[in-house]
Structures
1.
Amino acid sequence: MTALASRETVVTPSAPVRATWHRPALAVLLLGTAVLYLWGLGASGWANAFYSAAAQAGSQSWKALFFGSSDAANAITVDKTPAALWVMSLSARLFGVNAWSVLVPQALMGVGSVWLLHATVRRTSGPAAGLVAGLVLALTPAAALMFRFNNPDALLVLLLVAAAYCVVRAAEKASPRWLALAGVAVGFGFLAKMLQAFLVLPAFALAYLVAAPVPLGKRLLHLLGALLSTVAAAGWYLVVVALWPAADRPFIGGSQTNSLWELVFGYNGFGRITGDEVGSVGGGAGRGWGSTGLTRLFGTEMAGGIAWLLPAALLALGAGLWFTRSAPRTDRSRTALLLWGGWLVVTALVFSYMGGIIHPYYTVALAPPIAALVGTAAVQLWRLRSRPAASGLLSGGVALTALTAYLVLAGSTWLAPTILVGGLLATVALFFAAQLTRWAATAVAVLALVVTLSGTGAYTLATASAPHSGAIPSAGPSSGFGGGRGGGPGSLLSTTTPGASLTSLLQQDASHYTWTAATVLSNAAAGYQLASGAPVMAVGGFNGTDPYPTLAQFQQYVASGRIHYFLGEGMTMQGSSGSDAAQQIAEWVAEHYQSSTVDGVTVYDLTTAN
């Protein structure tokens, strides 16, 4: 947007601007973010017990930590690559297995993401833009949700923002080293959440290819080196798992062939795009994951987490690209627009049209580019407010944001009409801000900032103040503001919390068995395992449709005295495809062993046959 300025206008400097107010302001931002993400964190308990149980297993077994096993006896892994679990497991080893040791690392990742985003935007647009971008990220509901929860998304966002910082540094002086570091960060992002990490690669490559100050041949060579570093950082783990003898490692959860490659490119890969996910309990457009299309991110499930500033970010992107169309190839403002805009557009389009499993919290991946675009545009346009085009765009962005907040909140709180009225006042005042006195203009800027952040900020505070648990959390309060907070049927998506008698039973003689119990579905197993502290086999994995163990394998485990109890009566929800081994096992147990009821749970003692 620097093309709006006259030749005398000072544009982005070659090095980050130093300002006396910058460091204190940054300290306040980071401290406030830490309080927001850490306060009352323990109220969520184990949060996603599926991952908490795996962290517990990793704190007890180094093999379980490396593979991301659901239990310390290494029966089956979670259905993700385990980088996020490595962090949680190491924390649990250091500070014990508890809710805080699992959740505090996520909150710290949130603070780190805000700091890194600020640093990245600051290099291209100055300290004020960096601070605004960091503030917007901190006050994004989806970010507050995920940085107070133990899903892999927190680590993914941190690594992708770190990669963006490296790309910006690389583009400044055509540094292959910084570009390779960006590739390493994205590669480790893959180890957190697989192929989703690669959605940023087109934007990163385009930004460097356009802006790096060296001939085209060198730019292409540098990009090739970065690609190789990405492949190395992501691929080493795939190779190790593939070469490891299958009999000496856990079954790969989420796969049908005990293959991490299948998990990466199938169930957690292209299956998410096409909806063809073998073993899934739903999926496909119109078959459990909502309608697809450009309006998906503004629908009732997604909007509360991310939609607040999305229209303003798109406006900033379009206007910025137009106004920098004649800028030099290496112009930093356009480099930033290509990087953040490409990240936003590619990821948003994938989320909008993917036909497989998608959850509202995925949208946290959109928070950094939205924040960066809004922060950059707000500061640039404010500096150029004497020009009608700049003041008009600034007014339009505030109006769009106020209208978006009103539509998201409509009918649920007094805040909706308040934001709309405040937005209209700020919109008009901004258009004439250049004619106002300095103090009056400052007051208008403060009003615009408050209006812009009121909706997303209120929703973020509501998200942070409510406990979240289960497999599918969503942003927002537990009541009010319209919209819920996730959950799910039976024990597929929620965790079974055993009573004291059942917990005592599972702990009794647990050391004499490889698994103190087995039960169908990972979330059910997680609750028993976290309560007892002993390994519990998750028969059939997360969905109950993984072919592990087979009936023959389970019978062999029972015959050799490796499993003490079988809990529950089998499947609570059938998948649309995959293996029925879990159902076969449940039926075989019910037929051959006598049951009792403990704390409302059906218990089969596998050491005593009928």
Note: The chain has 23 helices and five strands.
2.
Amino acid sequence: MRRVSTRPLAFFLVAWIALSWGAPAHAGLSVGADSVSVPGLSLTDMQADLNPQGDGKGIQLQLTAKKADVPAMGWRKLGLALEGQLDRDELGRWVFEGRVRLRGAPGGALTDAAVRIVADEAANTLAVSVTQDKAVAEVALPIDQVTHAQITLKNLPAGWLQGLLSTVWSGRPTAGKVNADLALDLLDTGTQAAGQFALDGVGFDSPGGKLAGQKISGSGRLGLDTSQEGATIDLDAALRGGEWLLGPLYANLPAHAVQVSLSARSQKGTLGIRRLRLTDPDALQLEGELGFDTKGELSTLRLDRFNARFPAAYDRYGKGLVRTWGLDGLRASGDVAGHLAMGPGGPTAFAVQTGDLDLAMADGRLGVNGLHGSVDWSVDEDRPTTRMGWQSLQVYRIPNGAAEGTWRSKGGTLALEKPMAIPVLDGNLRVLSLGWKPAAATGERLQTSLALTQIDMGAFCRAVGWPEFGGTLGGAVPSLRYVDDRVELGGGLALNVFDGFVDITGMTLSRPFSDAPVLAGNIALRNLDLAKMTSVFDFGSITGRLHGSIDDVRLVAWQPSAFKATLLADQGGRISQKAVNNLTSVGGGGIAGGLQGTVLKLFKTFGYRRIGLNCTLKGDVCSMGGLGATKDGYTIVEGSGLPHLTVVGHQREVDWPTLLRRLQAATKGDGPTIQ
């Protein structure tokens, strides 16, 4: 066998035809070749059979190749079978009509298609038309310059272009139809193409799933330039509907046209969008650039200008980006404009300004109304002073009043320049200092010092849905830090409630913006008036003073998972029959000292010397204790005077849900109920 190389394949065949018809016998001809190469096409193990028709009109052609390569289409090692009739028409043109079958083409392209080839020597044109089902591909090119072609595609399955896309990107189309009119040039260094296109319900995907889209429709102009070093893509389009995923950026396009203009460069598995313009009239306008690494991860994001109108901007374009900041679900209204830059490690600069913006997390944990002003931050440049404030702020259902602060970026930290006072629950929260490091992915992200004065506990209870009781909350927090994904409280908070004090120290809050935040800390109780406490919770009346501690508190998703509680009233007092019954129920015990139920009913209250109850919670089990051990349990109430009353608890290990139900039952009545 020998290698055959000629110009267009059509004239390669015509040469055979001339040879076979040169003799009057009109004998058939079979030709084989190890390889055949023409511009844009190479065949391996090719076999062609040409047989004159019995009526002398035309030639029956059969051509097969074990391997066919079309580099411009990204087609490699395809099986090829071509058969049909070749003849001259009344204009003297060579016309081939038959069928072509490819084996192994991406997307199942041309598995069984009708093909028509017309070679017009006088007009120097070669025209190819291929039809399969409703898909049509037409190619026209000069015979003396087959490296240049005009291509028309109609209803072409997007999957057929998988090979072509593989020359510039590792992804693949998954659905939809494509129409196009393109000019194609095959160069020694690569391929150039330009023209118009239209998409109907197109989908695509990438190996890592970071770049994807579905049900995308629209039209526009495309330019493509490929080489061994990479490929350049220029696009100007009007897109309608469908969803896009570009790394952390998710877009849900509206039914009306969104104008997109970009210039992108694909090289060694990376994708850089060097120029990007997007205009969605009622939602978002932006200019900037994007970059993705070989894994499809966002490596750079620079928005030189953006103008967003909420809620449409968030609903259509913001959900994916906001999730990268640890937030899932956002309600927003208003306008915001500015610029933004991000690198592989996170943000490197941003500036935003707004006249009136409302934001709230979907679960109501955080929210701000009437946000106004501007902030300007950079990780490596000092920026000018700005002002930003709000009309109202809500943090975990705690309402805060209007405030405004002065901010400045210096050394990568966005800092409050002077103290700011925030009205909270008839009191004040003074933010003495605050520094935020937006670029910090680990370590200390935020540091602040706070002072709380005269926070009304009744208003606090109403805000969080607790049974209402009086008192005030105050204290100094010399250091509150957001480190990694944990809030750490330095100093402490003091609650002046029930004519005593509750001190909170060592508090931390891990994963504060997740669905399961973890709260830890220690609580000290000092000199609380039991009469005021029990009147609020309808536990039954107890007089006297209570002190104790709840150490190593751990709440997961705001539900207790661990603590060590010690409660003691050791100054004596009176306890009502209802309180006695409830303490007995909580301890799973009974009344000692020979008192019968009929005797108890004769007395409304009893004197006591001490009351003590301990509970150490680990998992779902609470280890119970009291004033001291007895023969078959532990003492909860040590009586005083006559009748002498002693309450003993018998259950050392109590299922926490069971204990919680007992506490809830003990506080049910005409008063408030703890949930």
Note: Helices lie at 9-20, 162-166, 312-323, 457-464, 530-537, 577-587, 597-600, 656-666.
3.
Amino acid sequence: MATPRVLMQRLRVPPSGWLYTHVLVRCAMYGVLLLLLVLGLSRAVLSLQWQEDRQLDLHILHSVSEQRVLLQRLSLLVPDPKAQAPDPDRWQALASTTLRLRKEADVLDQMQRRQSESAPLSSRETIAALKDWLVVREALWASLDRANLSGETPRALQDTEVRSTMMVIARAEMTLYTLAQQLAADTSQRSHRVISTIWAIVGGIVLLILALAVFLVEPTARAVRRQYEELSRQAERLKRMATVAEISSNAIAITDASHRVTWINQAFTELTGYTSEAAQGRRIGTLLRGRSADPTHFSEFTEALAQGRGIKREVRILTRQGLRGWVLVDMQPIADPAGGDAGWVLVATDLSEVRSQQEILSLAVSGAGLGIWHWDLVDNSVGWNRRMQQFLGYPDGVLSPHAASWRALIHPDDWLPWNESIRQHLLDETHEHRLSVRLRHQSGRWIWILFAGRAADRTVQGRVLRIAGVAMDVNAQKALEQQLRSAARTDDLTALPNRTVMLELIRTAIERHRTEPGYHFAVLFMDFDRFKQVNDTLGHTVGDGLLRQIARRLEDSLRPG
């Protein structure tokens, strides 16, 4: 079975820019190879051409030198007109030398034509020397033909023929010497030109290498390094993700595009009882439906799979122990680089313990008669449960969830303490938000509610996002407290201030007189004569009524304050 690493590598999407980097690297490599091939071929062709030209130049110089030697030999073999009879051997050597000279001249003509085709002469002196040689050579051939020196039959030569022939030979020898000098100069110039061309190519190669290094190799190397670093980071992320998927307590399953399971982790096996061998190749919908405590509830998952959209639901399943439990199933599609469906990933979180704790907490809150409230500081909205609404006497849907509506319910005298408590808690979490405030009941009366809450959510920077807590109806408790406070400072019968209050007022007046000498006060003592007779004759009930009547008349007689 494929591991999560292999699956994620199959399904991962290449980072942005990788395609451009691949093309750039490939083009750079092929470009360098092509450049090396072109440079190698150019060098080979240039070297071969230079060798051929060099060899041809050497052959031409050798031919010219050979003709000069033949001319010198020819001048030595010309018969002396004063000789009694021509020497046959000498005449034969003369004829052979003349024939060799003609052949060597033809060879020189052929090599010069080849040279003019491959490397045309550019020196005017060489062209002039070559023209002079052609003219002199024709004159030499004509002189030799007139003297019949190339014939096989010896004959006596006239003095004028010998002198004319020797002059032409000497002129031809000088012309060949001049031609040899110019050809040597052209050869040297041609060699310098080839060397300059080679250095130019070398310089161009160096410049091209520098350009490739600056504009192609270095950017490509940086791009490859960035790609390598990105691949390393991605490999590390995939490794961590694979490790997390393997050891996660959440049940995880991965499918292919046809919804068939390709991998599950151990938590999936522990939750559902399906082993890797049993789950592999089966459709994920079939596995979910087989463990569902309510198979009809899984129609939503079937529709989501058919439509290719993600789904997240809490469902009840049958665990491997046969118990009913709650799980949060989050099933999302995986897209391939082309945007198509590459598979699905399913993450199931076991909520059985959470649901159990929620039920216990709900029972505890319900049994304690507590209301639940929360205040979202981001969108400035409030919310509460049904018990809280019952405290205020409002049916469902009547109270507005806006914070302004909440503020309108708080008694004006209690708004500042409420706001200050909230502010202190936001500044210091150890300062609990706990106080009693009066809220307006639907009937219009004020009721006392005890609120206790804490910051529930915070940002990374520590800013509070939401406050939540509980509320308790303490209206009866507040009424009792008021009664206790009243009983401690008033007379039960007359509802007038009792002895304790009287002594506090006298003590306050005395202290004020000490600090303010001009301040004076008086204490009035009243005694009712024969009051005992009323109790004795008419009863204590009538006596108590008489005392209450006297108290009311005293209150009516006093000015306010």
Note: The two ends are 91 Å apart (CA to CA).
4.
Amino acid sequence: MEYPLFLSKIFWMSIKVWCAMRAACGWRGAMLKTVTERGQELDPVEQLEHLLASHAAEVDRIQVEAARRLTGPGLLWEFPGAVIDVSAADPDADRLAELWNRRAREVLDAVGWTDERLICRRFQGGINLAISAPMDQLHSAVLAAQVAWHRCACDLLGLAALPFDALIGDLKLCMAQEANPALCALITAATSRGVDILSDDDDVSLGQGAGSQTWSVQNVPAPQDVEWANLHDIPVAMITGTNGKTTTTRLCAAIARAADKIAGLTTTDVVQVGDDILDRGDYSGPGGARMLLRDPRVEIAFLEVARGGILRRGLATRRASVAIVTNISKDHLGEYGVTTLADLAEAKFAVTRAVMEGGVCVLNADDPNVVEAAARVNSPIWWFSLDPASPQIKQARISGQPCAFLDQDALTFCNGTDEPWSVNIRDVPITLEGAARHNIYNALAAMCACAALNISPEAIQSGLAGFSSDTNDNPGRFNQFDFNGARLFVDYAHNPDAIAAVCDALAQVPAQRRFILLSQPGDRSDQNIHDATAAALRFQPDHIVVAEISDYLRGRALEEVPRLIEEAASDCGKDPEDITRVRSPAEGVELILQQAQPGDLVLLLVLSDRECVFKLLAGN
């Protein structure tokens, strides 16, 4: 959609631009002329570029990210709309909250969105500013947020704002171009019938999976022309958390297949229906969820939900049967207003907003961050824990609420009414006979979720028993290989908690010598890299191979991250003579394979070059 140049180019999301207006006394007229004589005038952004340098210093304390659409429930609330993230000191954030409440309300009322909402969310070092909007007007919502922001910025800096009536007039023109009354009517009809509706820039669909039908967004049917009797939702589970999302998602799908269901799943690797891979890539956001939920073969769906998708756009559906939160630990802090563990928990718990009436939330009772955030959950909670005496498990059993826990060597599920049933931990391959505690948690979460989706105990037991830590069932997660009498494990773990979980499990495995391959992405802080290295030393390695991952530099110089890993290992007591640096994970694997002997144990923490590493191992 093409918007008037007046709106689409001049609303830069930085206060530096608005400060430049101070020097642009004659620019406003030139800008308006550009609207009417679009092809003859120089781009107004280009006219402003030379004005910025002399005015940037006085506003460096505030930085603004580009406004973005919110298409579903997320960190802030459950409404569609638009959000702007502002980094600012506390006094400026206080003032911006006051201004946003006034200026955003003026814009919403002026365009006729009197029933829409606005919100300010303070975070450490800044503030999120958002408005809600009709689902068919989300591009216009971004522009409306930019208009409101422009007026806030001018107020903050003491500048004259651009003419409000002109801004609103052009904004209404954008709204008229974008409006899709047929889509709004269909949303209303679907909501009243309790049927899911998914829409994006290209398509709109009603129902989910085997009960769905899809149309072009430009050819939306009238409600009376829809065969509603053929449309329905399917059981859907959303799986989020810092660690364990992908394994739990795959494990749930394996259990559903054991129940003779056509299961669909989305993960950071694929979108898959049964054995059919629709596409490869990171599909842990709303785009992957819509792709899967529009496939008419799918009878039950498991959606991995990552932090990034929640924060950038929101969730794809508001009609999930189950939401799982595996755990909350430090990872990816510092983006979209998520700067603390409490912020991260708030973001992850957005999945609980998508649970429809009659659904449940499956939560980790052993994670204090999860337990604290659970106080704000409205749906019934099914807890899981490694401790049958944990307060949440004890209370669940007293009140007759379903739960799952580890009871000595048995993964046990109580439905609150009947006798508990269990599966021996030695019959669940991914637990490594109990050594892999992180996978015990994943198995317990999957038990709860699948029981909530009305899958039988027999199918759950069969699915758990048939799911292995190999490259077919769970690629990149605790995959075991045998080479020259040595045991090799490949894992994607890359944050301190995940690395610690894997290393704690393998520290219990006897070995002649221990080799570990380490690497870290460049966007991690120095402290995070140090903590990840310290966690890796829980493996008790005799030899450490540090790999550069050049496609994950993310702002750092070559060799900077390997140097930090080596320094951290030395700080933790490792002899530099036992540390070797290589240029890539693949080179590190080749070096270790050359040295591995019978009885050795090897852990390859592979974030990059995974396919190449798997080919090397398969070839050997």
Note: The chain has 21 helices and 25 strands.
